[in-house]
Specification:
This protein has about 300 residues and is an alpha+beta fold. The chain has 2 domains: about 120 residues, no CATH class; about 170 residues, L-fuculose-1-phosphate Aldolase, CATH 3.40.225. The chain contains 12 helices and 9 strands. The strands form 2 sheets. A 7-stranded mixed β-sheet has the order 5-2-1-6-9-8-7, with helices on both faces. Strand 3 and strand 4 form a beta hairpin. Helix 1 packs across helix 5, helix 1 crosses helix 7 and helix 9 crosses helix 11. It is elongated. Pfam families: HTH_3, ThiN.
């Protein structure tokens, strides 16, 4: 008797760990960094590197496995993907391959009796909240890397600081929006990100994003930057919609933004801005489909 969990442990895990170890080494990581990234010992990494651990050729050659290995290796190597997200992504593929797919076939080879049995293995939800939250955090990290490597971004940071945010698909509150704890600040001419993206840490940028979404505008990410009339013109010249809203109606943010976008012909990524008033700093908000896109638009326009 052989359980499919044994197939996963004996066939799938050694194979994908071996492929990941090789892919990470190819990306310039040291043996120690590979071990830390995969949560295994350096001696295990050495064995994988020297081909001392057997792996399943059918699993190694599967296009979905190859694609996942490349995606996870890229994410771990750049820091865009956490170990938690890597684990979730691999778990999702495992359950997919168990469900009448590749691992089920390997299981049937080990247990021929299963071929004539009507067995339906349950699968993990590929749209689980933990997977979605890790994907959003990864997306914000990619956007932040674009901003912090961009020449001159620090000059766009307002006095209150900037924040790059992205929300979950069904976001309704600020707890469903990931951003930078403490915001992004200009420290001696350098954009400084104090901590890893987290959910529920952005109040104002998240509120603007949620208020815009509440009026049926299909955006999932936003970045607040300093307002400048010339910069607004630059966005317009580059083909992006710009919409002004009333800065004095901050207590009715959703309604104010709703009035502003109601009849606007909005591009996929666009700019909401308010020119300030007594005690209110003028701010622009670049809103779009995801954090990397928003960051790239700012980089390209500026």
């Amino acid at each position: 008797m052989k359980f499919i969990e044994e197939v996963v442990v004996e066939e799938f895990l050694p194979t994908i760990r071996s492929l990941l170890a090789e892919a990470l080494r190819d990306r310039g990581l040291t043996q120690r960094e590979v071990a830390d990234g995969l949560g295994i010992s350096q001696s295990a990494v050495s064995k994988y590197a020297h081909g001392e651990v057997a792996h399943n050729e059918a699993i190694a050659a599967d296009d979905r496995v190859v694609e996942l290995v490349e995606r996870v290796a890229d994410g771990l190597a750049t820091g865009d993907m956490s170990r938690v997200q890597a684990l979730v992504e691999i778990e999702v593929l495992i359950r997919q391959l168990e469900d009448g797919d590749l691992l089920a076939e390997v299981h049937e080879d080990a247990m021929p009796e299963l071929a004539d049995a009507d067995i339906d293995f349950s699968v993990h939800d590929p749209d689980s909240r933990i997977r979605q939250t890790e994907q959003v955090r990864s997306s914000v990290r990619r956007g932040l890397r674009t901003l912090t490597s961009m020449s001159g971004f620090a000059t766009l940071i307002p006095n209150v600081g900037s924040n790059l945010v992205e929300c979950l698909p069904e976001a309704t509150t600020v707890d469903d929006v990931a951003g930078v704890p403490g915001r992004i600040f200009d420290i001696k001419g350098r954009a400084t990100v104090p901590a890893e993206p987290e959910f529920g840490v952005s109040e104002h940028a998240a509120s603007v994003l949620l208020a815009t979404r509440s009026h049926g505008v299909d955006v999932s990410a936003g970045l607040n930057i300093a307002y400048d009339a010339d910069l607004i013109e630059d966005f317009e010249a580059a083909g992006y919609s710009t919409v002004e809203f009333d800065s004095e109606a901050s207590e009715e943010l959703a309604a104010t933004i709703g009035d502003a976008v109601a009849d606007a012909d909005l591009t996929e990524t666009f700019v909401l801005y308010q020119t300030g008033s007594y005690g209110i700093e003028p701010i622009s908000y670049v809103l779009g489909p995801d954090a990397p896109t928003v960051a790239s638009v700012v980089r390209d326009v500026v």
